[in-house]
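User: Please work through this fold.
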Amino acid sequence: MDLTVNLPGGTALPSIGFGTWQLSSKAAYESVRAALEIGYRHIDTATLYKNEADVGKAVKDSGLDREQVFVTTKLRPQDARHARRTLESSLRLLDTEYVDLWLIHWPTAQDELVPTWRELLAAKDAGLVRNVGVSNYSPALIDRLTEETGRQPAVNQIPWSPAQHDPALLDEHRRRGIAVEGYSGLKNTDLRDPAIAGVAQRYGVSPAQVVLRWHLEHDIVILPRSSRREHIASNFDLGGFSLAKEDVAAIDSLSRTG
């Protein structure tokens, strides 16, 4: 399985990203350094997380070329009226000339929905960001942005887990050609559930690895987060096995969205 998702315009988005929510200062720096050493090439942060400077320093200190690391940050809705200024602050903190993906973290007020999206598109046109998207948006809101501007988000980052699995919602994104990034997949899952633990035992992997691999089987980009190196490593070690269709279906059946 190819562990990248192709975004419109040709950017390859690594399917395994490293999340940094709730990682502050030293923990953010050390965890991102560890993740990059282990092999992650996709780092997800946000203005809200207040760790952009630590993330940027970790990327810089890793010795990797900037082009090798896909960096995402996000705009808080309350910063919508100052979107460009907020992005410029993020770029200074991250110590980079551009980010690979800039997302609106949550839907703004109705009267700011389209103007904010236009600001993201303008930043992309100016070369400050490579790709733009949204987070926590419904297909209906995405359609409104697209209809008003003629340009749709490349990505929607939304909570996803076996319990939240919604094939119809996934299909709505697929039909629009929008990549889905799932967050809090492990946080919102009972890793002791027999359906997951049983699969893990058969494959000789951890329940967390089963859940993360299940996301990948659905072409959902994952953003696991940990401050422990062994967990950072195991969350990335997903290429050595794939789930049989019946195992994917069994985990799908844990969904409570139906």
